[in-house]
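The records we work with from here on pair a chain with its fold. A complete example follows; check for yourself that the lines match position by position.
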Amino acid sequence: MLRSSGALVMALAMLSSSTGWAGDRREAPLSSFGFERPLRAHELLGAWHRQARRQNATGNPVAERGSTPTLAILTVSSQAQHGRARPQAQSGRLAERRARFTALIDATAERYGIDPELVHAVIRAESSYNPRAKSPAGACGLMQLMPATAERFGVHDIWDPAQNIRGGVAYLRVLFERFDGDLRLVLAAYNAGEGAVEKYGNRVPPYRETRAYVQKVMGYLRAV
């Protein structure tokens, strides 16, 4: 796992030059992203304990970050220790659509070291598992990738569920590295962009849509 934003930037720069990440329409091999090794429980718990120590030192949770990042960490580490997390409660058509893509989501999430239930929560919030969904802003597919994001992650057919999920999960992994495992910031950046989160001092931007989105995805995860 990359340990610093500087290392991540350097790795991404090397990747872009060596694989044509941003400009070449060929799909880069998974191993070239550096995410072929899943995050292990002890690595995630280490980040959790570091955050807890920071909060204890100040006596108060960090503004806008609080204790919620532990949800992402514990979800993944609990899964690693005790098997798959319990699926989010769903019924009817939504459950049927979820089942249609579960094997694909699980395999992609495992390859990138992301909790499958987080991917499910994002897809549920973004598209309700509709692979043909398109937003007024132009975001497409299950994970609502913008064309620029799809190009960035080597997705040449944005409507193909496998490629769409791969691009979205790869983006989530990059965001986890960039924002030191803070789930709220990862979700905010997925919705509003990395620049928006950084603009507001690495906090959830004060956008109504983004804050509602973060709460929605977190709510789905709490149902796990």
Summary: Residues 92-112 form the longest helix (21 residues). The radius of gyration is 17 Å.
